[in-house]
Structures are given as structure tokens and as C-alpha cells.
Amino acid sequence: MASKAGDWRNYKRVLLPPVKDLHRLDVYEDHGGYDALRQALTTDKWDPASVTDEVKKSGLRGRGGAGFPTGLKWTFMPPVNPDVPRFICCNADESEPGTFKDRQVMEYNPHLVFEGMVLAGYAMTIKTAYLYVRGEYADWITHMERELEKAYAKGYVGENIMGSDFSMDIVIHKGAGAYICGEESSLMNSLEGRRAYPRIKPPFPAQKGIWNYPTTINNVETFAHVPLILSKGADWFSSIGAPSSPGPVLYGISGHVNRPGVYEYPSGMLISDLIDEVAGGMRGGKKLKAVVPGGSSVPVLRADMIDGVTMDPEGLRDAGSMLGTAGMLILDQDTDMVSFLRRITHFYHHESCGQCTPCREGTGWLENIVTRIDEGEGNVKDLDLLIDLCSQMEGRTVCALADAAAWPVRHTITRFREEFEAKCRPSLVATHVESAAV
Amino acid sequence: MTDFIKDPVVSLPDRMPEPVIPGDELFFTDEEKKQIETWVSRYPTADGAVMRVLWLAQEKFSFLPAEVVQLVANALDMPYAKVYGVATFYTQYFKEKKGKYVFDVCTCFSCQWCGGYDMLHYLEEKLRVHAGETTGDGLFTIQEAECLGACGSAPMLQITNGPYVHNLTREKIDALIDALREGNMPAFESVTLPQDEDELSGNRRTDVDKTTSSVTPPVSETVK
Amino acid sequence: MPKITIDNRIVEVEDGDTLLQSCLDEDLEIPHFCYHPAMSAPANCRQCLVEVGMPRVDRETRERVLDEDGNPVIDFMPKLQTSCSMKVADGMVVRSHRTSELVKRAQKDNLEFLLINHPLDCPICDQAGHCPLQNQTYKYGPEGSRFEFRKVMKPKNIELGPRVVLDGERCINCTRCTRFTQEISGSHQLTIIERGVRNYPMTPPGVVFDEPYSMNVIDICPVGALTSKDHRFKARIWEMSQTPSISTTNAKGSNCVYHVKDNLVMNVTARTNMDVNEFWLADEDRLDYRKFNENRPEGPAIGGQAADWDAAYAEAARLLQSTSGQRVFFLGSALSTTEDNYLLARLAEHLGADAPAYIPHIEAGHGDNWLRTDDRAPNTQGCERLGFSALDAEVLKSRLAGGDIDVLYVMEDDPVGEGLCELADLEGVKVIVHHHHTTNETLPAAAVAIPAAMAVETVGTFVNCDGHAQRLRPAKAIKGVNRTLAMEVGKSRADLHGTPFDRWYTESNMVDCEPGWVSIPAIAERVGLSLSYKGPRAIMAELSEDNPAFTGATYDAMGESGVRLDVTHQPDTHTQTA
Ligand SMILES: Cc1cc2nc3c(=O)[nH]c(=O)nc-3n(C[C@H](O)[C@H](O)[C@H](O)COP(=O)(O)O)c2cc1C
Ligand code: SF4
Ligand code: SF4
Ligand code: FES
Ligand code: FES
Fold first, then answer.
1. Domains, chain A, ranges and CATH?
2. How far is C215 from chain B (nearest CA, A)?
3. Domains of chain C by residue range
């Protein structure tokens, strides 16, 4: 399989174009900032429905992890009823381990996010938009608040935006440390001042969202694409990268590479290109052992599984993983996959909201067993038990955190089984083999 | 790694604690009240502002003892139990007094493989306290953190829910501690996008004091 | 009404109901913990999973797609669904553990998870024997556990408040208790604190869980995490009998269950009656049971000397006939049954006395517009509907002072204790008292003292403040031999847990007393009035025929949930004074 990213070496960045101080409103304006919004609000070019249509046509899929078609999501909002408030919410909780791209957008191009949110608000007739930022990003909240104030002053946000009769507020909401708040229904409870327990679905946010009012939630990067789609056209967007999930993607590359960081390239890049050419190759010339392509929740790929694999939902599905957040962890030959999995199970155990049984109890059990194996006290039958427990958690909980906790366990074990067996107690490995032979 | 798995004990909070904030200091100023009103006005119900007000209270009183949680509840006319349930849910709200500087050292996922544990252990040895503990002089608390969204500049830490320190090394930690002992919080540190290094020959922001460029992460000594 | 198919059985269900409730209504058990019909459904325990399918609908024609055999094609949802959060819809097809291996497995898996951090201390747990977790584990759970690590240790034996004790380790985090304080009582005294596996319910610091309804969380907690401080470790559920009856603490007549061991009342819990108290019971109703066990009399007395029953009846009759009816003052009682008050009224009428009055037990400010009322007596309405009037202390005092009263007949109340008169006022007055307790302060003045059965020992009817007539059932046996009562006791003690009644031998726990419907006819007979009914059932049948204020209140109609009486026949309380 070949790269779907076309001539990526000559790709010109659009989300984070190479412009000094683009985060400042004046610079942003000088470079075409808020033009798409101006067109939408002050010309006949875009009525609300056609904004949604354009986003739909662009093929943009959510960048928060689930990859849901954005335009389609927007059409789930019920018809406008002036008596019923409705909201949009920008998900900047970015806590999926290995993911750090949204922070870079907020640092370097916050107005693109604001503009995207106002356009989405215009498309869905929204009066209030919340920007839920994880509490740890305190400095970035301060920066964004400063820029948001300027955008208000210039009339890009607030009452009668650009003299039109469309008004919308953006409210920055500061989280306080909980991965689960990235899950959209938990985020809504958190916003409402409750414990951030995810809600059962249905009802979905478009039916009953924040304060039970119709709500659309999208990721930071998702909103950031919207002004670009409107100013450059859906066709332009859909021609970039992998046809089934087109557009620019912010690849967050971390781990054992020479040049980690966030890179903007078309979707559908080859994993191997991203490692070898984009991120400067493996640190110290070591051999690649494993790649986690989209945040800690997605299945890990062994080095021998990435040949020709592209970074788009279909490419990764076929390879046995998922695109997730496109936050890639690259691991070299010296990595102990048991220890790797142990730390992941610790994360999910720590971050389970504890509301529902299989996740509250299962995540801790998983960590217990993997820890025991990592410490050389495990039995080979523990590996089967782990897989069994994954089956007991997957698809049976209120939210997808339990699935996200189970997938890495299931796939790290199946894909690196010998390594796990090697760490188990030797005597019991033998017993197991014998009894299996009988 | 925090040893909850090994010693899975959930302790009971003090149910009838003595107030620690003197009664005459336990209030929001008129200015703070106005700020709270502004926040409240941005949500359909006052409850939406509770996280911001808890933040305000924590910044003012340095942590959230019971009487402060009650103060927040009163300010928003919310049930006290509800606010307490919220305050205990999130890790960034401090339910007990911590050091003046709290180091949240990321050891998660990417950081684990780029020396996060080395940095944690170095700090522990240097400050002679374990993760989860505070130094005797009340200056420093060390905590092990989950991914803080800066995996490209691993290993890293955050200071007291504020600035991030990226691309940690032992030397950087030494300098950091010296600076903090003098009372100097590090300035915001902007991580340069690798593509900006190529196309803009450096960080794009001209308004930050400190930048750090993409660095090849160190080889982790603790875990391989 | 939508029709759904549950395990191949087609049932009609209520529109808007949840699937779980529909199944329960059909007597189809679905294991569950967090769902409670009165509260929001968080679907957090994940025990009630089922397979759910819907008929496939053709997009164009909007018709159901049929297979070759003409049956609708059913598309099952890819994941199991929590039936507690799923609304029923016409054509829905449901497979529970009865027909689905997948569901069976999911239920077993979930119970395994629930138990890994559970202390499994059933042998010392008050909930054992009536514990949904224990019961459902036996029915649907795994054989053993594969968990080989240290269980999470949480705070135990914590007094959340004066009446409720928490064992954090037993808690399964269903949030029923916190939802109760948020959605039902509104006290907001509880919240889940912490996160993840550390979660448990707690009061915020400085708050005591002392709301007047706190003990309801004990009833609804599906495990033994919340127990009654009063009842803890006192008796196992299978050592007690359970009698559905009514509480006596106030005029609401909340429905309750009396738990009795060896003829002592040990505990009182809520009984559902959607017309009265729904699922709830005030703490005062639960704790005010020692009065049934303590300071109870031992047989009748004449002039303070123990006497036998016949002698006491004869002496009472003699006193009643020693003067003219006009000089006998009858006090009925808002604490006694309607039947007994009615018999008393008949006796008074026969003697030519005024209709009885009753002592009001009003405690202003006590009521809360929910299950507690200012009126601390259970049957004021019954008295009012019989035409009795509230006793005016001044009237009684002046009549006593004026020497207008020769005989004062007090049924199951205490005019001295209630401050309506003093012992000195009763000098020279012959007092006949039916009493519950030896502490009755009118007793020293009693010429004849007749021990009376209390609400847990008799059969009868109370009418609550809203005009709801409800039956009392005997929960504990008394000493005397009474066929009617014995039969009723036999019926009213539900033997849910194999309770060993035959080993209840402690004589002293059975009080030597009689219900009013035994003692009043015995006295009446001796003054020439026959009140021979075949027990209180017949008395109520007569009342419901003859007295429009009781129309419809037959025992059969009242059953276990009572009958709402016609309001128009409720006499006005305030215009009538003695
Ligand atoms: C456990 C969990 C954590 C999540 N965390 C995030 C997050 O940090 N940021 C985010 O944008 N989406 C996160 N999501 C996905 C959101 O629920 C939601 O799908 C997304 O915000 C929708 O935006 P999109 O359509 O633009 O991707 C998370 C989902 C789960 C199940
Ligand atoms: S799956 Fe986990 S995180 Fe999600 S609701 Fe259940 S307990 Fe909470
Ligand atoms: S104490 Fe009981 S009712 Fe409360 S959450 Fe725990 S199990 Fe549920
Ligand atoms: S793993 Fe340390 S910041 Fe993401
Ligand atoms: S009863 Fe349905 S999930 Fe608990």
C-alpha cells in the first residue's frame, strides 16, 4: 500500500501556517483571518444550511478520536426553537496519553478555533459556545482568554458579530484534572457543575446535551478546519490526503524518534514516512519495535505490521488498529512491552470515573495482573484471564473508557505474547505447557 | 508508580475537621464576588461556575479545606455536598495542604519511555521525599502525573497547576529548584514546532521569554 | 399500548415505561441493583443487561420488513442494553438470561466484578438473607472468583449520622442513597466522593446525615453497606417474622413492615403504598417500636391490686351502673382502632352517656407536608368520622371541678399524662382505664385497669389524615387465647425466611392484654348490651354499611393498601368541642 498523502513533501501548512505571531489577532487578520466568517455573516454566500452542507461535502471527520463525520453530526441538531437554548462545545480536554496537538493549535492559532466555533454556531444557530479546556492547560487558557477578549473587542465574537444579526458568546471553561472529561457526555456533566460521570446514550448530545438542551460537541482541531473549508472550499479539503478521511492532520509524534513534535501533513501519511522522514528517524539508529498510532487507547502495532500502513481510519483498521487522535508513540527495540502495558493499565485505573461496575472494578484488576506479570510473579494463565476480562468489559459500560482500557491489554498481549510469557514464572510456564500436552 | 495497587487503602477524610482558615479571612472580596457573578452569568445555572470558583478559592487559600468548599457552595447557592463531590473528583483540586510548589511529573505513556521515571526519581532523591509527599520546609511536593499533553517534549513536569517545564534534564531540574527557592517561577516556555524550525528558523512567537526546540528524548534508565 | 416480546412471550406494556419496569410488572425477574422506580436511572450497575431488537422498517414504505415465513425481521442492537434505561417500543424483541447465553454470561461477569472488592462478610452482615447482591449472586453469579489480589480497603463502621452506619467496602456504588438525598428527600447530605475504585458515599466534612428520613437509604441500599445503628447485629432477618401493617407515630399512617422476633418488635421498615407513603418511611416511624415491648402491663387490676379478667370486667360493669349515664364521661382514643372506638360509642349510647370525646395529640410544627404530621396519633380521623370531638381540657376540668362526673372511662389513652387533668382532679371519680403501659400516669387513679393490646397486637382500622382507611395486622402474639386473633396472626406473619415461630417460647414477651374488641363487649355484656361481633372484620362491615363516613371500608376492600374514604363525610374538626 502506498501513501495517500500525495506530494506531502511540498505540503503547505494551513492549520499552523508558517507565520510569525499568528496567534495575535492583528497578525491573524492580516493573513485572511475571520474572512470566512465575514463572508458568511455579511454576504449572501453562506446561509447557515449551506455552511453545514459545505462541511458535509468536505468529508471532514472529527479529530477527537472517534472520527465521526462532522457535517453529518451537525445535521442531528433539532430544528431551531427560539424558546429552547442550544449549545456548541469545543472539546479541548486533550488528555489521551500521547496526544498534544490541540494544545499547539491553542497556542499558535487560537483565532482559527474561535472562528471555526463561530461559524459552527452560525450554521446551527447557537448563542453560546463553551470551550472546555483541561485544567492543566492553565497557561494556554490565559493566552486564549487574552486573545478572545480582543476578538470580542473587534466584534468577531459576541453581540451582532460583524454588524450582522448573529450573536454568539464563547465561554472558556477550565477543567481540573480528569481524563474522563474528554468523553463528551462526561464533559457536559462537568460543565454543569456535577461530578464528571458520563451519561447513558441515547439520548445523544444533539437531543439532550448541556443542561439537557441540544448540543453539538467537536474537537479543537475539528473546529479549526471549518474556516479553512469555507474559505478554500470543500473540494480543496477533500482533495487532501486519504479520500475517506481527507484534510490536513496534526500528527503528534512522541517517543523514540529524533525529532518528536506536532507535524501538519495530509491525512493518509505512511507511518514509516512519518517516523523516518518527518520525525527524523529512530533515536540512536535503533530498530523500531512498536507503534501506537492514535493515543494510548488504540491497539499497538508491531514493527512488522506497519509496512505500507497509512494514517487514516481505513488504513489503520485494515492494519488492526485505529486512527484515534493521531497521537503516535514510537517505541524502539529496547522497550519492555509488559512495563509499557503496566503503565497504561495504571492510567485507566486511575482515570476511570468509577461510575459503572465493569470499568471501576475491571481496570484495577487489569492493573493488578499486569503488575504481577511485570514483577515476574505472573502465570501464563493470567494472560488468558486478562483477555477474558477485556471481553467482560468491552461494550458493557456507560462510556467507551472501559473499551479504551481493554483494547491495549487485548492487543498488546496478543501481539507480544512471547514477551509476556517470558516474564511469567518459569515453573508455571512449564506446567502449563505440560498440562496442555496431556 | 503510586502504590495504590499494592496498598489499596482508601482513607476516611476528617469528618469534623477544625477550620484552618481563620474566620475573618474566610470570605470572597467584593471584587471576587463580582468576578463570580460574571462567571455565573455565562451558564444557564450558577452550578456551571463551580469549577471556576473552586479554582479561585484554591488560588486564594492555597488548598480547599472543608470551610472553603462550604464558602464556594454558599457563593453559588449550591448544596455543599454537591460541591464537595465535585472537589474530590478532580485531581487538580487540593483537598489537603501541599507544598508551595507542587511538581506534577509525568510518567505516563510517552514520558515513561523518555525518562519520566528518571526525572521523578531524581527529584525524589534530590528533595529526599517520595512522590506524594511534601518536603519538611513545606516548599515542595512531588506527585506522579498522568499525561499532561506535552508528550513531544517529554520528559516534562508542571509546577503547581501552572507552568510546564519541558525536555527535562537533571541540570534543568537543578536550575529549576534553585530558581524556585529564590521564589522565581519559571516563565512560560513555548515548544517550537519542528516544522517551524525548518520554515521559520525557530519559534514563531516573538512574545515569549522562553522557547525550547524539538529535542531527541533521552534514553530512559529506569525502564527500558 | 405497545406490545413487546420478552423471551418469546408477547406482553402489552405501558407506553413510556422502561423495559426493566415492564419486565418486573410482568413478574419476569431481571437482576438489577441501581434502578429504583422512584428515582432517575443512571444505569451504572450494569447488571440488567439484555439483548434488544427492533423490527426492521423499510425506509420507503415505512412498513415492517417480513421474512419468508411472514415474520418481522428483527435487528438486534450490536451491544447488550441496560433494560433500566431502555424505553419500551412497539414491536421490541427482548432476550433476557432466560433465552440468551450472551445475557447470562454478561450477568455472571458483572457479578464477578461486583464481588472482587466486596468483603464477602455475609455471615456477619445484617443484609444477609435479604440482600439483592447475595440473592442475585446465588442465582446468576459465578461459581468462584478469579481475583487473587488485595481488595480495596475502605472506611468501615462509619456513623454517617445518628441512625445510619456505612460500611464502605460493601458499597457497590449504585448511588441509590445519594440520589435519595438529592431527588427524594432533598436534604443533599450525601454525595459520592473521590473517583474510580475509591468512590464511596459520604457526608461532606462537618455534616451529619441526620435528616428525618435518613433511614430510607438502609431500605434501598441493595447491599449491607448502609445499616441501621439501632438494629445492627440485633437479629438476623430469618429469625424474625415480617408483618405488613401501618405505622402509629403520626396521622400519615405510612405503611410499614414490623419485624418481630420471639414476640418482640425488633425493627420497622418501609412498605410500598403508592397512595400513602410511596416507598418511604420517616425515621420516627422506624424507631418508635420499643413502646410495643417495654413497660407493658401484666394483666388487669382492681384498685391497684392484680385481678383476673372476669373480676375486672365485672367491676367495670358495676361502676358503670353505679350512676346515671349522664354522669359517665367516655374518652375514646385517636390511638385505638376505629372498631374499638365504635364499640365504645355503642356502650356510651347504651348507658345514655354523651358520645365519647378523644384527646388530640397535636404537636405544632412537627409536620413537614410529607410523611410527618403535627398530629402524633394514628387515628384522629377515625374518631372524627365516628362523630367524636376533640377533648377540650377546660371543659373536662370544669366538669370534674363541678362534680359532674362520677365515672371516667378512658380507653387507651392517658389524660393525666397528656396534661388534661391532674390526679388530684380525679379524687372521688371512679376511673376505668384501658392502658398500653404501666407508665400510664392516669393509672394511680384507676379503679379498674384493663391492659389493652397495641397496634402490633390487634386487628383493626386506622384512618389517616387524608381519609385513607387502612388495616392493622397483628405482628406479635399476646397471652390470652383468642381464636380470631390467633387466626389473624397466623395469616399476617409472612414466613419469608423460614422463621422458626415454634421456638418462640419466651412467655414474658407475650403481654397479658386484650384488644378493645374483646374487652369492651365483655364489659358491655355485663351492663346488658350485646356487642357480639365475629371479630373486627364484622364490625367494620357494619360501619361501612351504616355510616357514610366509612362507606367502602370493608376488610376485603382495604386489603394491604387501604381505601380512600369519601372526603365529603369528613366532619369538620374545629367546630366540635365537648
Ligand atoms: C474516554 C474518552 C476520552 C475522550 N477524550 C477526548 C478528548 O480529550 N478530546 C476530544 O476531543 N475528544 C475526546 N473523546 C471523544 C469525545 O467523546 C467526542 O467523540 C469528540 O469530542 C467529538 O468531537 P469530534 O467529532 O470533533 O472528534 C474522548 C472519548 C472517550 C470515550
Ligand atoms: S466506563 Fe468507566 S469511565 Fe465510563 S462511565 Fe463507566 S466507570 Fe466511568
Ligand atoms: S451505600 Fe448502598 S445505596 Fe449507597 S451507593 Fe453504596 S450500595 Fe448504593
Ligand atoms: S505522556 Fe507525558 S505529557 Fe503525555
Ligand atoms: S439496574 Fe440497569 S444498570 Fe443498574
1. 32-238 (3.40.50.11540), 337-423 (1.20.1440.230)
2. 18
3. 3-114, 122-291, 301-569
Name the pLDDT band for C571 (thresholds 50, 70, 90): low
Interchain proximity B147–A258, CB inside 8 Å: no
Q: State the pLDDT confidence band at C284, using cuts at 50, 70 and 90.
A: very high
**The whole model's pTM is what?**
0.96
Architecture of domain C3-114: Roll (3.10)
> What CATH topology corresponds to C301-569?
Rossmann fold (3.40.50)
CB contacts of C193 in chain B (<8 Å) are 13, 84-85, 88
Query: What value of ipTM does the predicted structure carry?
Result: 0.97
Q: Give mean pLDDT, residues C129-141.
A: 97
Tell me which residue of C370, C374, C369, C342 sits closest to C358, measured CA to CA: C342
Please indicate whether, in this complex, the C-beta atoms of A364 and C44 are within 8 angstroms of each other. no
Residue A435 in this model has a pLDDT that exceeds 60? no
B165 in contact with chain A, both atoms CB, cutoff 8 A: no
Please give the share of chain C, as a percent, with pLDDT higher than 70.
98
User: Nearest ligand, CA of residue C218?
Assistant: 3
Q: According to the model, what pLDDT value does residue C482 have?
A: 84
How much is the average pLDDT of C359-365? 97
Given a cut of 90, whether residue C270 has pLDDT beyond it is yes
Q: Which residues of C touch B9 (CB under 8 A)?
A: 152-153
Express each pLDDT in A355-408 by its tens digit. 999 999 999 999 999 999 999 999 999 999 999 999 999 999 999 999 999 999
Strand order in the sheet with C305-306: C305-306, C301-302, C446-451, C430-435, C407-411, C328-331, C357-358, C389-390
d(CA A112, ligand 1 centre) in Å: 20
Confidence of residue A2 (pLDDT cuts 50, 70, 90): confident
Is B204 at the interface with chain A, CB within 8 A?
yes
The 10s digit of each residue's pLDDT in A272-324 is 999 999 999 999 999 999 999 999 999 999 999 999 999 999 999 999 999 99
Contact C205 B88 (CB under 8 A): no
Which grid cell sits at B29?
Answer: 472580596
* Fold classification of C122-291 (topology level): Alpha-Beta Plaits (3.30.70)
Residue C217, pLDDT score:
98
Substitution target from B7, B80, B195 for chain A, most A beta carbons within 10 A: B195
